[in-house]
Amino acid sequence: MAKNDPYAALKFKEFNIFLFMRFLLVFGWSMQFIVIEWEVYSLTKDPLALGIIGLMEIIPAFTMALFAGHIVDRSEKRNLLAICIALFSFISLGLFCLTWDVVVANWSTKTILYGIYTLVFFGGFLRSFFGPTIFSLIALIVPKKVYPNAATWSTSTWKAATVLGALCGGFFIHWIGVDKTLCIIFVLVVLALIFTFRIKKKPILNTNKEESVKDSLAVGVKFVFSNKAILGALTLDMIAVLFGGTVALLSVFAQDILKVGSQGFGVLNASISLGSIVSMFLTTYIPVAKNAGKKLLASIFIFGICIIVFGLSSSFWLSVVALFLSGAADGISMVIRQTILQLKTPDEMRGRVSSVNSMFVGSSNELGAFESGLAAKLLGPVRAVIFGGTMTLLTVTAIGFKNKILRNLDLTKDYEGHEETN
């Protein structure tokens, strides 16, 4: 049975192409995030400027999310993804131009900073389409009986790319500089675009052409809010990420507190994703479907503790361990959440449901970055991180006691149901 085969999804050729394409894209995207965070803080020495990066991305990502889901459900997924990647390549090229030595020498810091914020803004617009398109495309590449396994491999690939992207981003800044690193990112994105066309076009499952945009969006939102399992998981993760997001402040800790430079900055970023990828690969052998609710609550509680330890630490290696364990806990949380979404979402609504998910969780990463930057400005970076971890613990405890449906969630029957009907 597929649920006992940790490599079930990898037996499909197009899924392997999809994983490679996604690895290239996320690897480049992850490096780009690291490089821009480093460049902006180097230009301003202001933690609030890092928070503004998150704000510039969340505004278009959040406001466009539902409409993007509607477009995704009505569109052919392969071509839509190719368009998004092509447009993203222009953003990478623009960031390279803004950090090019010739430009930096002749343009003011304010002009370069505003240019970076503008490109990040358009990147947020594209991101509102990326998540729903990728989520929907997976369901068209593999059969339903291997959805959970495909979700785990897809998320693990994303995290593996994030690990290497974060690590290489820090090292490449040190070795070749910001501008040349962004040039490499542009090349990676173009390669991802090329491999996207090796995936065949897929059928459009939502053929209800008479449904208005307003009604279409209302149906997607209503589905999410009427499904207590999905709503509970998304709400919990959103609040935890909102208050527990320390990634936006890592450049501050690397430069001013731990004093480990760009290489240490890369290691700190990579340690989070490395923890996630280890736990995700383990879940391919040890499924999380049984008692999924309790495991979700426990993983986010552990995540909060690790964030507090990181905030209190003055040791580089203790900080690395704390971030690694926070990533491992977060990885388990993501696998559970993605499994819930894949098993409980109808095919014709995947774009809209994924868009609501991005509004809850994806956008909260950027909003969390803004919250972290603002808190660091008001409280200082150490107190800001400790505050975030404490709020995460209080939130998961409250939801655990209050939300009985989430606490007792078990996905075993949903899993077996898909096995029997496919």
Question: Which features does this protein show?
Answer:
single chain; 422 residues; mainly alpha; 17 helices; disordered C terminus
Briefly, what is this?
The protein has 422 residues and is an all-alpha fold.
Describe this structure as you would to a colleague.
The chain crosses the membrane at residues 15-36, 48-68, 80-102, 114-142, 158-176, 182-199, 230-254, 266-288, 300-325, 382-401. The structure is a single chain. The chain has helices spanning 13-44, 47-74, 77-99, 101-106, 109-141, 147-175, 178-196, 213-226, 228-244, 250-257, 261-285, 292-312, 316-344, 350-379, 381-402, 404-407, 412-421. It is globular and about 55 Å long. Residues 418-422 have low confidence and may be disordered. The protein is 83% helix and 0% strand.
- Share of helix, binned: over 70%
**Strand tally, please?**
0
Shape: globular
Distance from first to last alpha carbon: 11 Å
Q: What count of helical segments does DSSP give? A: 17
Overall average pLDDT: 85
Backbone structural class: mainly alpha
What does the radius of gyration come to?
Answer: 20 Å
Main sheet properties: none
- Proportion of residues in β-strands: under 5%
